[in-house]
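I hope you will forgive my troubling you with a question about protein structure. The matter concerns a single protein, recorded as an amino acid sequence and a row of C-alpha cells. Please examine both parts with care and let me know of anything in them that strikes you as inconsistent. Here, with my thanks, is the record as I have it:
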Amino acid sequence: MHRTASGDPPHRWSTLAVLCTTLLLISLDNTVLNVALPSIVRGIGASSSQLQWMVDAYAVVFAGLLLSLGALGDRVGRKWIFMAGLVVFGGGSAFAAWSGSPDRLTLARAVMGLGAAALMPCTLSILTNVFTAERDRVRAIGIWSGTTGLGVALGPILGGFLLAHFWWGSVFLVNVPIAAIGLIAAIWLIPNSNNPSAMRPDPIGALLSIIGLGLLLWGIIEAPSRGWSSPLIMGAMATAAVAITAFVIWERRIDHPMLPLRFFSDRRYSAAIGALALVLFALLGMFFLMTQYLQFVLDFSPLEAGLRVAPVAIALLVIAPLSVVVARRIGSKAVVGAGMVLIAIGLGLLSGPLCRGPTATASARSSYSAWEWPWPWPPAPSP
C-alpha cells in the first residue's frame, strides 16, 4: 500500500469520511427509531412490549457480539469484517423497512445489531491504522467521536422529516443506499489491516452474554402482562441468572475473555461504568416514552415530536466536548456528579405538572385506543 512521507495512506481523509458516514448510520438508528415508534404502532399494530423488543433486540445482539467481532476483524482482516458489516446492516435495514409484523421487525433489528457490531470496532481500528502521525490521529479520533453525537442529534429531526413525507419503513430504508455507497467506497479507499497477535474471539462468552441478557430482558418486558409470579417469567429469570453466572465463571477462566473482568477491580473504572449505565438507563427510557407521549397524548406530528426531542441530543453534542475541559480543571468526579444531578432535575421537571399536556384529541385517541398504555400518568383515556 502506497503511503505519504508521513507514513499515512494518501487518501486517509477520504477513508475517514467513509468511516464517519458509517458510524453516523449506526448512531442515527436508535434515535430515528424512537420517533418512529408511534407510526409503527399505527402501521403494524405493535404492542408496548413488542416496541420494547424492537429497541432491545438491536442492543442485545450489538453488545453481545461487539468485542468478539472486533477481535475477529483483528485476525482475519478489518476491511473484510467492515464490508461484511455494511452488507448485513444494509440487508437488515431493507428487511426492517418491509416487515409486515412486529416479530419480523424485531428479527430485522437483531440482524441490524449484528451488522453494527461488525462495523463499530472496525471503524476505530481502521482509523488508528490509517492515521499513524500523532497530530492527525488525534484530530481524526475527535472527528470520529463527534460523529456519534451528531448522529444522536440529527436522528429525531431526520426521523420526523421522513415520517412527515413517507411511511414508517422509510426510517430504515434510508440506510440501504448509504450502506451501498459505503461498501463501494470501502473497496477502493479502505486499506486492509490485521493484527496476527490479537486475542482469539470468544464465541462462548458472546453466546452466554446474549442468552443471559436476552432472557433477563424478556422477563422484565413480559412480566407486566404475564405476571411476575408466572412460571414462564420465573423460569426465564432463573435461566438468565444461570447464564450470567456461567458467563462470569467462563470469562474468569479463559485466557482470551470477551470482557476482561480484572478491569472491574479498579473502583474508579467500576464507578464510571456504573454511572454511565444509570445515565443511559434514564435517558434511553425517557426517549422511548417521550416520543410516544408527544404523539399519542399531545397529538404532535412526528416532525414536531422530533424537533421537541432534539434539544436533548443537541445539548449532548455541545456539552460533551466542553466537559472534558472542565474535568481537567475541577476533576471528573465533580463533573460526573453534577451531570447526574442535572439529569435527575430534568427528568423531575418532565414528570411535573408543567409538562403534562392537555387531554388527548379525538384523532390521537383513535390511534391508540387498542394500544397498551405503558406509563401510569396521565391515565389511559377511554376509547
About this structure: Confidence is low (pLDDT under 50) at residues 360-383. The CA atoms of residues 98 and 169 lie 6 Å apart. Residues 12-202+254-360 form a domain with the Growth Hormone; Chain: A; fold (CATH 1.20.1250.20). The two ends are 66 Å apart (CA to CA).
